[in-house]
Amino acid sequence: MDRVDHIVRRSRFFDAFFAVVGGLILVAVLIVLFVLIGDLFYRGFDRINWQFLTSFPSRFAERAGILSALVGSILVLIVTAVCSIPLGIAAGLYLEEYAPKNRLTALIEINISNLASVPSIIYGLMALGLFVYKLNLGQSILAAGLTLGLLVLPIVIVTTREAIRSVPQHIREAAFAVGATKWQVVRDHVLPYSSGGIMTGVIIALSRAIGETAPLVTIGALTFISFLPSPPLTPEPPFISFKWLMDPFAVLPIQMFNWISRPQEGFHVNAAAVGVVILIITLGMNAAAILIRWRFRRRIKW
Amino acid sequence: MVNSSIYPVKAEVKSLNFYYGQVHALKNINLQIPEKKVVALIGPSGCGKTTLLRCFNRMHDLYPGHTYSGEIVLHPDEVNVLSKDVDPIEVRMRISMVFQKPNPFPKSIYENVAYGLRVRGIRRRSILDEHVERALRSAALWDEVKDRLHSMAFNLSGGQQQRLCIARALAIDPELILFDEPTSALDPIATAKIEELTNELKKEVSIIIVTHNMQQAARISDYTAFMYMGELIEYDETGKIFTKPSKKLTEEYITGHFG
Ligand SMILES: Nc1ncnc2c1ncn2[C@@H]1O[C@H](COP(=O)(O)OP(=O)(O)O)[C@@H](O)[C@H]1O
Ligand SMILES: [Mg+2]
Could you tell me if A243 and A224 lie in one domain? Predict the structure, then answer.
């Protein structure tokens, strides 16, 4: 039998070994990431100026801009948010607070987790069949927003459930004990105390939607579009118009893809610049998510 | 077991059986709760004290698989609170509860106390103010918090939080209050404050208190019920239980031979 100090020395060695290996891998991964991002910023950052943000695409790299793609991304994201946020929160809330725990709900739960890992192009194919052809929405902002909405719905549902589950049962019991109904417990306690986590999930889901390319290519996003969708506000009554929902569109990642496949060097710089814009938007949204979570954590202690 | 000295009766437990799924946790409990007195439930850990207490306000209805039979009749209107025809919400508006661990809502002190009124749809500021102040005074907390009613409940100490929970339970003007080991998470000074409080409260309201601390039961209760393995072994005036219990098991427990 080994002496105790041998055993200890051996485990110490393995501890140190794994710490070093793990650390090295982490450093390597971070270096690759920073080199990629740094390269993108180095090549594209200077190209971002007012002209770039407010011009339509052009045959000439130095006159081209991302206006239509930026507006397209924003509008698609609005549709995505409007359909996935209420639906996702309601579904998560129902599964966590109301649904009986039985085989059927267990099956639904497993399937929702699985949906989150389905490749996004599959969503695109389904959307092409359902939204574009069956429902006759065409290659429109509405079809794109609904597609991305479906894509991020599982993320919203899963994070909503996690946030709701973090509200301790004794808080629910305290509310029930003074005569609250189920809905009052949900409205006055469960939702407010989990809203930090829910908002974080929603933002992360939307920042994922911003970068999605494959499903939008599948349903037919345009790569060259030199007009904006119809304005949502009109000078005549009823002043609000939803015509833009049915307009064709371009989005940022597709614009980037289009430029990168051109031979001219100038378009490659443009592509890097779009990449920087997308990165800034997603990092900004993630920073907002972290900030929100931090502020709620500070306010609520169990 | 039925004691003729218990009069007037506030609540009457009749042939109560309780099951956690297959586990028979309460076995044919019969018990009379006197009005405006303190009843202590004692017994070793796992004997069913909490289970019995949570039957009174239908807390078990929140969990599928928790089943029960029998009656708990509330006087003077003789409502069987366990009846399927009686809404548990209604029961909880008459019988309130203080939990083992202080569990204030992450809201202001004021909103914690007012919550039981808000769920009844009371919106008038003056009525809320009045009830909140009265409840906080009854819970001996008013003087400590009157200048910071709108600060978060978490800023209070453990003992203050538990008194806040008592105020929350009092604000709905209950007829009966259930305490489940309310001092087990508190230091001796905070414990003494709450024991003193139960003495004051019983002038207004009937009290059932679960405790694993026999000295506490002896100090604050008028009647004591000794439970063992889901059964009610003995129930009598506290003085009698602690000086000359009639059952051997009770005597062994209070003299510290087990539990
Ligand atoms: N949620 C539950 N599910 C299943 N069994 C439970 C549950 N809660 C309590 N029990 C069991 O019921 C018995 C009584 O528990 P409890 O009423 O909590 O005892 P006490 O409060 O006297 O310590 C114990 O044997 C315990 O293991
Ligand atoms: Mg207990």
Answer: yes
| Strand ordering across the sheet containing B231-237 | B95-98, B176-180, B206-210, B38-42, B223-228, B231-237
Same domain, A79 and A214: yes
* Domain total of chain A: 2
pTM of the model: 0.86
Beta pairing, strands B66-74 & B38-42: unpaired
Which tens digits make up the pLDDT trace of A168-199?
A: 999 999 999 999 999 999 999 999 999 999 99
* Ligand 1 within 6 A of CB of B47: yes
CATH, residue A282 = 1.10.3720.10
Residue A172 sits in the same domain as residue A275:
yes
A51 interface with B at CB cutoff 8 Å: no
Residue A38 belongs to what domain range? 4-45
A8, A113: one domain: no
Whole-number Å distance between alpha carbons of B229 and B242 = 20
Bond before A215 cis per omega within 30 degrees: no
A286 CA to chain B: closest CA distance, Å?
Answer: 26
Tally C-beta pairs within 8 A across A and B. 68
Task: Say whether both A139 and A37 belong to one domain.
Answer: no
Tokens of B162: 């538990």
Measure Cα distances from A76 to A80, A246, B96 in Å.
6, 11, 51
How far does the CA of residue B75 sit from the closest CA of chain A (Å)? Answer: 20
Atom 7 (ligand 1) nearest CA: B20
Nearest atom within ligand 1 for CA of residue B52: 17
The ligand 1 atom at the shortest distance from the C-alpha of residue B41 is 22
ipTM of the assembly? 0.94
CA distance A285 to chain B (A): 27
Is the CB of A177 less than 8 angstroms away from the CB of B93?
no
Same structural domain, A139 and A15: no
Instruction: Kindly list the domain boundaries of chain B, sorted by start residue.
Output: 9-254
Q: Is the CB of B29 under 6 A from ligand 1?
A: no
Residues A179, B92: C-beta atoms closer than 8 Å: yes
> Which CATH code fits B9-254?
3.40.50.300
pLDDT in tens, B13-51: 999 999 999 999 999 999 999 999 999 999 999 999 999
Res. B2: pLDDT tops 60: no
Answer yes or no: is the C-beta of B49 below 6 A from any ligand 1 atom: yes
Torsions phi, psi of B210, nearest 5?
-90, 135
How far is CA B34 from its chain centroid? 13
Please tell me whether residues A33 and A103 are part of one structural domain.
no
